[in-house]
Write a structure and sequence with these properties.
The complex is a heterotrimer of chains A (704), B (220) and C (318). Chain B is mostly helical. Chain B is built from eight helices and no strands. Classes of the chains: A mainly alpha (704), B mainly alpha (220), C mainly alpha (318).
């Protein structure tokens, strides 16, 4: 292998490939270490690995854990550096062909600017997760179920982004899917996880099948599956529509596009928290990379209507995802649903870019695509921090249900502000990065009158309204998350005795929040960094931002709109400081602690606080009837009756009940029909073979 | 017709759509009737402005009919009927007001896409008037579909009629008086039928029209 | 030199909004009292209240966290920054391009986010009621606001408030039904954003339907003073926003002389008086609505905003 590589000059690609080899080697190392450990000291089979034992008391020590995670962090950092260098230098590395995989075809790898951008996202997330894992992994009861698959998962994601032919791509895609599946099943004895793994597997298989068909159509009659060959022979127009549909299904099922999202809120929370962060923050982005690669790069010039389904699906995904999150009461489940929302936002950006590109409006298309890519980067950051925070809560209390938490701001003094910052970022509030990217998306929506099609002109503002609704709902959702988990009074004994987590975890979260703030106040730097990737796909880029006065960003023209995160940040800090100083100087600074007032009727029981369900109730009353068919039933006992009043809510998941349950029923029905063919005589089976043969022979006979 | 006069025509036509939405938003019968009167008044203004701007005096007749009949007489009569029969003052909606309004927005978008794509060559005012009037018609129809109460169904029908009149005045060169008088006879007929039906329903204390069949002996 | 002059104008503007905000609140209260044939408190009563609150000690709930103490400053900062970005008497201020209308909306969103967190911090049922209802109002008011922004921005080709105001002054604006819809929607959103009747009652305590007051129930002393000041600022900001977009006459453009600036201030004061009077008149003539009627009200605002955007495409220029 080294001899094949040595001759090539594409250093970044080579370095990254070696790093991937390193990941795989680590995976094998971990397997070997675990086997050795098991041989030397056979563990008793854990019969009930209940969650609460994750809490402070039991802290199993594993020396291999920090070693593996540390190495992972190091290797991720290496790839990160290589990808950063190749993105900033703008040099699309040459193609590397390894004599692996299919004979005479080989495995093609290439890091162009798009791949470099996504490598940065993947490895930034990977670095954070590995760092977090050094601390978090210590509480893992069965590290043998996590350690081998973690590096393999990272390797798979890196390979997907680097792959430059269909076979390598699909192989890497499957490696990524299977490794993440194994990680989802790490705690397979916990209730619900087995089902999560099963649903995930089915959806992953479905997605891969769609991608197989996509590549089949793309390669067409030429039959050359390398990306360069596909790019050279674009498919015909009616076929391109089919490819778009298949690509949406294939990558959307991985990214969590409604209605293919059903596995995501089950599987992401089931994995260990740093893996959840990787799956939510990074793996969904790899799926979006696949979509961009397929539709923007390989499929050729877009048709005008392509943007429509992408945008409409994106907007629906955004609103539905966050409404589901509003109803969820599991901390990691909420984060998973909010990932769905952000995927929707990103797809809206991509759909806009497609529409603009198809109508030869390269500047607008560049703006929309930049907004989408920026949101990809941002979401990877803050969603990782949020999952790390959820992991910290899990480590500290062993609980994930909102209704048992509360008051953690007193017990986790460092995690709480970091989690709050990530909440602010994901709620798209200035001056953090979530706002910067959503602002760019809104700016590109405002360019929609340039589109000539009437349908588009009217659709885009509607999509904008839905996005605005999703953003406002996201703010409500994260007020709920932070308010219920960290504020108020503890709702359980465990929550009142939580202890702050280790330094590695805090370090990973701090780094993520720092980057969030940086991307929020200096978005111009990041926009310029992404420019090569955008330019390669659209043929135009946003005007350079870093050279502008005061480091503000101006997407189109100064008379149109501008935003300066730095000034907004400084202004806010200054006014808050000024207010604090003035009050200190002129007002009283006496503070007295007293029992809570609550209009004179405080109740010492923490149950009387607003719970997660009660916080969501007004919003459920507004949207729930329409979206979930939610019905509330109140049973009020008659006057004088001492029975408790009851309120019960019934909800429906229309997507699950309307699509998946009928499909499941049909599959079961088909299975029971085909079950009869399982016990036939050999003569029958021969007959089937015979009929199949005749049928195949009939095809060329009748085809002419 | 340019500049200000176009703007005013546009404003009034848009106001008609707005009042259609206000009709959809109301959940009290009296408020509904008041808004309907308002819509008729906007229609009067719109038609009168068109008469002035186009220099078509026969449109003044249409405007006057709209003002007298639709803005004053019919709402007044409906007011009295509602008061005398003492019917439930709340408008029963199917599917909630929010959903109806959402559907209404969709209908406006639909009618705009249809008209704007179908008439690229027409004069801008006629185009825009047609788009807005189709919206008003569809919104009226939506109102008839989503309201159970006969009075609000009548109101929905008449607001549909308003949309038609808007379309007729916007397109220059139509024999308007003929159009309008026919439309009005249809309208009056419907009111008579509507009120009749409504009173019968009140007498039988139900809104289910099957009761009528039973009463006539057609069904046992 | 130019920079210094610009800075001076910007500084004046920030101080002006800060000083005027309680006066506006006092004025609205006074007019309301007069309309009810009461004498009402003095115009400068809000200043007295603020000063008294500043001098009082803070009584903090036992389990209130550091966030609870930090939030008043954050809310005040976000609101003040937002208020200083809205052109009040002059357009083209030094920092006006650092945030556009979308960013101003989002800044107010930040203030609301923190206020809702404050409501949840003490762990009381009243705070929770206020926070959850406030977020419900926000989920409809913010998209409605953004749809209004869309309407204006698609029309004017800019989301910068100074450019918007300039466009509204130009002859190409004409009479447009979309603008009317946007104005109505903006008025509805403004009532909701500021917790005015018919959405919420700013003068009430101990009423189950209250929203804003329920969230700040646990605040006292200097913290309460800051929150009250922020609420006044927000009212002033909303009113300034409405008059800046829909009655833009009299705004002094960038680089104008001292005399023009003073004319601008005088005209601005006049507009505020008018706006405050209309608000008071409206509030006295209408009853507060049920909480679960509010979504319909704001949903209507959202629909109006969307309708305004859609109707743009049948008007002449787009």
């Amino acid at each position: 292998m080294p001899s094949a590589v040595g001759a090539l000059s594409a250093t970044a690609t080579v370095i990254t490939l070696w790093c991937v080899v390193g990941f795989l080697a680590m995976a094998f190392m971990a397997v070997a270490a675990c086997v050795l450990c098991r041989l030397r000291d056979p563990l008793p089979i854990v019969s009930s690995p209940d969650v609460s034992s994750l809490a402070n008391g039991a802290q199993p020590q594993h020396n291999g854990t920090p070693f593996i995670y540390g190495l992972c962090a190091f290797v991720s950092l290496l790839i990160l550096a290589a990808a950063l260098a190749s993105l900033l230098s703008g040099a699309g590395g040459g193609e590397v062909v390894l004599p692996l995989g299919l004979p005479f075809v080989g495995a093609h790898f290439r890091i162009d600017s798009l791949a470099a951008f996504f490598l940065i996202v993947v490895n930034l997330g990977g670095f954070g997760a590995s760092l977090y894992g050094i601390g978090y992994g210590r509480h893992e009861h069965e590290p043998a179920r996590v350690l081998p698959f973690f590096p393999a998962f990272l390797a798979g994601m890196n390979l997907v982004v680097m792959a430059h032919d269909a076979f390598t791509f699909l192989f890497a895609w499957e490696l990524m899917s299977l490794a993440s599946w194994a990680l989802v099943m790490a705690h397979h004895r916990q209730p619900g996880n087995a089902r999560a793994g099963f649903v995930y597997l089915v959806m992953a298989v479905l997605g891969t099948l769609m991608l197989f068909l996509t590549f089949g159509l793309l390669a067409g009659t030429v039959g050359d599956y390398s990306f360069s060959a596909i790019r050279a022979h674009p498919v015909s127009t009616p076929l391109a529509g089919a490819v778009l549909g298949l690509a949406l299904l294939g990558t959307g099922s991985k990214a969590g596009l409604v209605p293919l999202h059903v596995w995501l809120p089950l599987a992401h929370p089931a994995a260990p928290s740093h893996v959840s962060a990787l799956m939510s923050g990074v793996m969904t982005k790899v799926a979006i990379y696949a979509f961009i690669r397929l539709v923007f790069d390989l499929l050729g010039p877009p048709d005008w209507w392509w943007g429509m389904p992408v945008m409409a699906l994106g907007a629906a995904t955004a609103v539905l995802g966050i409404l589901y999150a509003m109803e969820e009461t599991d901390l990691k489940g909420i984060l998973a649903y909010s990932t769905i929302e952000n995927i929707g936002v990103i797809f809206v950006g991509l759909g806009l870019a497609l529409a603009f590109k198809a109508n030869a409006l390269p500047v607008a298309a560049a703006l929309a695509l930049t907004a989408g890519l920026f949101h990809i980067f941002n979401h990877a950051l803050f969603k990782s921090v949020l999952f790390f925070g959820a992991g910290a809560v899990l480590t500290a209390t062993g609980l994930r249900r909102l209704d048992l938490l509360g008051g953690l701001i007193h017990r986790l003094p460092v995690t709480a502000p970091l989690f709050l910052a990530a909440c602010l970022a994901i709620s798209a509030l200035p001056p953090l990065n979530g706002f910067a990217s959503e602002w760019l998306i809104f700016q590109s929506i405002l360019l929609s009158p340039q589109l000539p099609q009437w349908g588009m002109k009217l659709l885009v503002p509607t999509v904008g309204a839905l996005l605005a609704l999703a953003a406002a709902l996201a703010a409500a959702c994260f007020v709920r998350v932070f308010g219920i988990v960290f504020l108020g009074r503890p709702r359980s004994a465990v929550a009142s005795e939580a202890r702050e987590v280790d330094r590695w975890s805090l370090g990973a979260m701090t780094g993520g929040v720092g980057l969030c703030l940086l991307a929020g106040i200096l978005p111009g730097v990041f926009i310029d960094g992404m420019a090569p990737a955008v330019a390669a796909l659209i043929g135009a880029r946003m005007p350079p931002q870093t050279s502008l006065q005061w480091l503000s960003i101006v997407p189109v023209a100064e008379s149109r709109s501008s935003y300066n995160g730095l000034l907004v940040f400084l202004f806010s800090a200054l006014s808050a400081g000024l207010a604090a100083w003035a009050i200190r100087r002129f007002g009283s600074h006496v503070t007295r602690r007293a029992p809570v007032w609550d209009c004179g009727f405080p109740d010492p029981s923490p149950v009387t606080q607003y719970s997660a369900a009660s916080f969501a109730q007004p919003i459920r009353r507004v949207f729930g009837g329409l979206v979930f068919g939610a019905r509330e039933r109140v049973e009020m006992p008659a006057p004088g009756d001492l029975a408790a009043a009851k309120i019960s809510v019934t909800r429906h998941d229309f997507i699950w009940e309307g699509i998946y349950e009928p499909v499941t029923r049909m599959v079961l029905l088909a299975a029971s029909v085909f079950d009869r063919t399982q016990a036939l005589t050999i003569r029958h089976y021969l007959g089937f073979v015979f009929l199949a043969l005749i049928g195949l022979l009939m095809v060329p006979a009748l085809w002419s | 017709m340019h500049g200000l006069s176009f703007d005013i025509a546009h404003l009034l036509a848009g106001g008609l759509v707005l009042t259609s939405f206000m009709l959809l938003y109301q959940d009290r019968l009296y408020a509904l009737l008041n808004v309907f009167a308002l819509q008729a008044f906007v229609l009067f203004l719109s038609v009168a402005w068109q008469a002035y701007a186009q220099g078509a005096p026969h449109l003044y007749v249409t405007a006057a009919i709209a003002l007298v009949l639709k803005a004053i007489v019919i709402p007044g009569a409906l007011h009295r009927i509602v008061a005398r029969l003492g019917i439930h003052r709340e408008v029963e909606t199917i599917g909630g007001i929010g959903l109806t309004m959402l559907a209404g927005i969709g209908l406006v978008a639909l009618s705009m896409v249809v008209i704007l794509r179908a008439t690229p060559a027409a004069a801008p005012l006629a185009r825009e008037d047609l788009a807005l009037s189709l919206s008003v018609v569809l919104l009226g129809l939506l109102m008839m579909v989503t309201r159970r109460n006969a009075v609000s169904q009548v109101v929905g029908f008449m607001s549909m009629e308003n949309g038609l009149i808007l379309a007729g005045t916007g397109a220059q060169g139509m024999p308007l008086v003929v159009e309008i008088s026919i439309a009005f006879s249809v309208l009056i007929a419907f009111i008579v039928i509507g009120i009749f039906l409504f009173q019968i329903r009140e007498r039988f204390d139900t809104v289910d029209s099957r009761v009528l069949d039973t009463f006539r002996g057609e069904r046992s | 030199m130019v920079l210094i002059a610009d800075l001076a104008v910007q500084g004046t503007e920030m101080l002006l909004v800060l000083c005027l905000a309680p006066l506006l609140t006092g004025f609205v209260r006074k007019v309301k009292a007069h309309l009810l044939r009461r004498r009402g408190p003095s115009l400068i009563q809000p200043y007295r209240d603020l000063l008294r609150l500043l001098r009082k000690e803070v009584v903090l709930a036992d389990n209130a966290s550091w966030l609870f103490c930090a939030i008043p400053y954050l809310i005040f900062a976000a609101t003040w920054v937002a208020a200083s970005l809205v052109p009040t008497f002059a357009t083209g201020l030094l920092f006006s391009w650092s945030a556009d209308l979308i960013a101003i909306t989002a800044l107010l969103g930040s203030a609301r986010f923190f206020l809702a967190l404050a409501g949840l911090d003490a762990g009381t049922s009243f705070g929770g009621i206020g926070a959850s209802r406030e977020m419900m109002v926000a989920t409809l008011a913010e998209p409605a606001m953004l749809m209004i922004v869309f309407t204006l921005a698609l029309l004017a080709g800019s989301t910068q408030l100074s450019n918007l105001a300039g466009f509204m002054l130009s002859p190409q604006i004409g009479l447009r039904v979309s603008l009317g819809l946007a104005l109505v929607a903006l008025l509805m959103v403004a009532l909701a954003e500021n917790g005015r009747i018919p959405i919420d009652n700013p003068a009430t305590h101990l009423e189950l339907t209250m929203v804003h007051e329920a969230m700040v129930l646990e605040y006292s002393g200097r913290h309460l003073a800051l929150i009250e000041l922020a609420a006044s600022l927000k009212l002033l900001l909303t009113l300034s926003l409405i008059v800046c977009v829909f009655i833009p006459w009299g705004l002094s453009p960038a680089g104008s002389g001292v005399a023009e600036r003073f004319i601008g201030i005088a005209v601005y004061l006049l507009k505020l008086v008018l706006g405050g009077f209309l608000l008071a008149l409206f509030e006295t003539s209408i009853a507060k609505m049920r909480v679960f009627r509010v979504p319909q009200f704001l949903g209507a605002a959202l629909m109006l905003g969307l309708l305004g955007t859609l109707l743009l495409f049948v008007s002449r220029s787009l």
